[in-house]
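Query protein
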Amino acid sequence: MDVLIKIKDREGVVHELQAPTDMAMNIMELCKAYELPVEGTCGGMAMCASCQCYVLNDVALPEMGDDEEAMLSEAFYVKSNSRLGCQIPITESLEGLELELAPEN
């Protein structure tokens, strides 16, 4: 099953992406699959913040782990709704999620 996730890029364009829930992907990998400008230089280990995004609506997300929290405490452009895309697995509960890519560091 796919879920619909909307991601606003750094130019303000909203992309409506079909995200598969059966491939163990995360938001960073989804962005890369659709060729959105997300580097993910650490490979999804919560060590670079290049996949930082802002959560724009109220969708239940997994709790933020210690590694993600530590990385965001050192990252640029962090807001109260910041998350690392690599730490958000794509599941059916993300249906309708709206995100905005953070500025590049």
